[in-house]
Amino acid sequence: MLKDFETKKRENKTALNDEIRQLQAQLLSQQQLLMKAKIPVVVLIEGWAAAGKGMLIKELISELDPRFYHVESPKVLPETEERYPFLYQYMKAVPVNGKVTFLDSGWMESAIRKYLRHEISKDEYRRRIRQVNEFERQLRDGGYIILKIFLHVGKQVQFERLFQLVEDHSTEWRVDNDDLWQQKEYKRFLEAYDEFMDKTGDIAGWHILDGSRHKTATRDALRLLVQRIDRALQEGRYEGVTSEEDFPLKEMPKLAEVDLSPVIDNDEYKKELKKLQSRIGELHNIFYRKKIPVILCFEGWDAAGKGGDIRRLTYALDPRGFDVHPIASPQPAEANRHYLWRFWTRLPKTGHICIFDRTWYGRVMVERIEGLCSENEWRRAYHEINEFERMLTEWGAVVLKFWLHIDQDVQLERFTLRENTPEKQWKITDEDWRNREKWNDYEIAVDEMLSKTSTKNAPWHIIESNDKKYARIKTLRIIVKALEKANEKHFQKTIGS
Description:
The chain contains 19 helices and 10 strands. By secondary structure, it is α/β, with parallel strands linked by helices.
């Protein structure tokens, strides 16, 4: 790739400028077509320091309507952003349907710099390459156009440009120590860029442009973008196919096989509740200091007791260190992005606890049953969700998933109680009754969900919830056990290092 790259010969300046203006006009006309077709676009501009990435983006957007594009420069991150998963900032930046995001450097530069600085291990670097491929595939399968451009300049050209910038008082701020280090380690970066592009080019191919010829690079980038959008407008939004990769799964029972008879007497409940809440509070403090993130996912039948479980849990926590996210129908800005976007953007910082009252599993339950997504989309989601949760656990998060299970008779009793109790009437809606009529459909969907997404790293826990008090105690016990295990694992890892 870069080792074999040949610098282009100079072209006629007038002809180049004319073609650039024509392509810019074409790109402007495509903006409204993209909006109409609801096709989102991500343009990633990577390359050497001083290769002209900023200038190229300026040319690409110069004639566009600024209401329909956004430029992100995630190279320099605030400390708070570093406390999220590797791909968090890039998923957060993806545009709504019909709009364009331009990234001034991105996942390649971030991964390579951290690896060459020995801030991440070789194994972690390899994981990030795999995660990039998964991330790009999920975006592509979700209908996104992804264009990846690398601006290449030789070592001498880079040196001359950096020197020129540093010598000018008005531009010296544009060169940082990382840029100077890259120039010094040019060969190492060259090899790393080549390897990264070779291993991440299958989903969305890399396009290497000559950064030493600014006008030529601008024309070539515009051509690529215009052609890629044209093809998408003709073919329509891409919809991917289900992956065949296998995840190690934990065997789960069918819901119909679950014994819902367990109960707990009131005295034992009070005693256990106090003890477990106290221990959870202690562990919360430990996890905050050690910066271990925790993600707790609650799903279950309507009136199964999710709210009660969550209240008993949060009572034990420092309110400054957790968030509860009740998930309802997506807002327009959420519905017009990849379905996982609204969960990525709600992830906790390291050391914090995030509680989801309903989750990304809506894709394979309510969206599946109500026809809010295609069959291909919900079938593909099992694999995408497994990838997402694997990424979370590789980041270091403790991920616990609970399905609160009751039978139909208990649900009817609780629905009736809610209807007849004024202060609880807000909890019951016509939609709850409609969902009850589809109990069999939901049971089939839940059984499939449990069997396909109860992975070894993020298994499901079925909570027998006919007795609410028993359910609360079992949930808290599982949380305590998991957090204690994660704390011990973190301790052993620290000792080992």
